[in-house]
Amino acid sequence: MKSAGAILAAAVLFTAACNNATDKTEASSQTIKAGIMKTDWGEADGQRVSLFTLTNAKGTEVKISTYGGIVTSFVTADKSGGKSNIVLGFDSLSGYLAKPPYFGALVGRYGNRIADGKFTLDGKDYHLATNNGKNALHGGLKGFDKVVWAASVASDTVPSLTLTYLSKDGEEGYPGNLNVTVQYTLTDDNELKIEYTATTDKATPVNLTNHSYFNLSGDVSKGILGHSLMIDADAYTPVDTTLIPTGEIKAVKGSPFDFTTAKPIGRDIDSVPGGYDHNFVLNSKGNQFAKVAVLSDSTSGRSLEVYTDQPGLQFYTGNFLDGKFTNRDGKAINQHAALCMETQHFPDSPNKPAFPSTILKPGETYHTVTVYKIVLQ
Ligand code: GLA
Asked: What is the mean pLDDT of residues 23-38?
């Protein structure tokens, strides 16, 4: 057993190694402490990239890259004792450098869309990088998913990885130096907990999320239309043809958007042009940490419970996946191969005063927690 001091010292040493972009001498893989392994994963932007493997007592294993804070892999048991990977991803950094559509990504400074890439704050107009037609999506051309984060390992007993990044004033058009910390923890209850913290020196919109694409069967060729889903949301935000909310908060009752009782995702999807890619207005309203969605796959026996303190959930059925990318197992990633449940504030909030505010001011701390929990039925 190592003492807490020794573990801390190891963490500090290894953080220093991580921050040293020219250090190419470190071993390609090393155990940092029980349940955490670090692997040298190559280079991006002239900086060293590491892949961390978090393993819990149940043998569940989550891999996270310092490039983009990406969850590259999430391996869990099924009801028959088999194991499979329940997220889309690649085994090498090069896969991510080819810019897949946000596989496993840590998304920011503003997850989802901002109309026409502009907003006005305190009387000043801001123009963002636009990267989705005329809109800004997921932080812009080089969002938080495409930068290298600094990493450190906490000195607690549960495997946990802390990533930090300074988003400079003006980056992608956003105001203020934003200091961001994201902590990933894998508990023995099979929860992947993601805790986001940020502070700024100028008022700025902030909306951080994770863009993991889940397929609980582990087999992307089966798709997710047979998975069943419950979302605890009585309303959603309808969108225009560029996926910007119209501003309306619409009841789901009697519509294909009603997931208040679990139903197969494929049941009504044909009545939703393009498939689901919508923000659900959670009944917990961002006022409390609550279970907001449950995804289930009866063949593997896996369920995924989503907990958050955020007011919204973007439910996206992988509509734009088109076979261009190949999963780590060599299978084509086709439309509806996997789905995202992105906990968030509502899209385009900086231009929608009636939506809950996403503005972080100097002196305030942005802090939110999301948990993805695997349960066997
Ligand atoms: C989000 C958006 C989708 C799509 C994907 C990435 O989930 O809501 O419209 O842009 O990201 O392909």
From this structure: 75
Cβ proximity of 228 and 263 under 8 Å:
yes
Residue 16 has pLDDT above 60, yes or no: no
**Which regions of 34-148 does DSSP assign to beta strands (E)?**
36-44, 47-55, 61-65, 71-77, 83-85, 105-107, 113-114, 118-121, 124-127, 136-137
Residues linked to residue 161 through DSSP beta bridges, in sequence order: 153, 184
Structure-block tokens of residue 78: 């099924």
Average pLDDT, rounded, for the chain: 93
What CATH architecture applies to the domain 4-376?
Distorted Sandwich (2.70)
User: Is 342 among the catalytic positions?
Assistant: yes
For 194-203, the pLDDT digits (tens) are 999 999 999 9
Residue 316 Cα, ligand 1 centroid: separation in angstroms? Answer: 7
Q: Which of 171, 172, 191, 342 is catalytic?
A: 342
The string of pLDDT tens digits covering residues 87-140 is 999 999 999 999 999 999 999 999 999 999 999 999 999 999 999 999 999 999
* Half-sphere exposure for 316 (CA within 13 Å, toward CB): 21
Please tell me whether residue 144 adopts helix, strand or coil conformation: helix
CA 265 to ligand 1 center in whole angstroms? 17
Copy the structure tokens of residue 64.
């996270």
pLDDT at 9 over 60: no
C-alpha to C-alpha distance for 335 and 339, rounded to whole angstroms:
10
Q: Domain limits of the chain?
A: 4-376
What is the structure's pLDDT at 188? 96
Q: Is the CB of 315 under 6 A from ligand 1?
A: no
For the Cβ of 314 lying below 6 angstroms from any atom of ligand 1, the answer is yes
pLDDT of residue 336: 98
- Residue 113 identity: R
104 lines ligand 1 (CB under 6 A): no
170 Cβ partners below 8 Å, 6+ apart?
none
Q: Among residues 285, 203, 279, which one has the least CA distance to residue 245?
A: 279
